[in-house]
Amino acid sequence: MVNIVEILKKAGNQLLVLVDELGVGTDPVEGAALAIAILQQLVESGASVIATTHYSELKSFAMTAKGFVNAGMEFDLQSLKPTFRLMIGYAGSSNAFEISRRLGIDDDVFARARSLVNEENARLERALTEAEQLRIRAEQAYHEQQRQMAQEREALQAELQQMRQRAQ
Fold it and tell me: Is the pLDDT of residue 21 over 70?
């Protein structure tokens, strides 16, 4: 926080601020609120900011606040490994429950943990998960359409070649 105080004092145009997990190490509600206020102040000063977070409150804030954009690292739930693809405009989900469930955590522990999650955070996590699934389906449909178009193009080129040969 000592460094953040100094950064806020110097914040202005042509300053790039990189912060990792701003507001952690304290009460999560206070930490998230403090992180949002700090990010707002930095942006209002003209600084460019890149911030990492696992706070749902910051992800939600960035979805609606002017001057902020979410980005997330893609994670393959099938292999339980990151893909290292940066997805601009997408807030990543923590996947903690899905990962622990897939790794075999006891059903009672899993159910208890699920029941302890704040409903608003749970809704946001569900929305993020659904958005990610929609993005994956859209990407797959796009690639399938690209494949079909390539096949059609090849067929048309072959037909054109045959027509040219007949014409000669």
Answer: yes
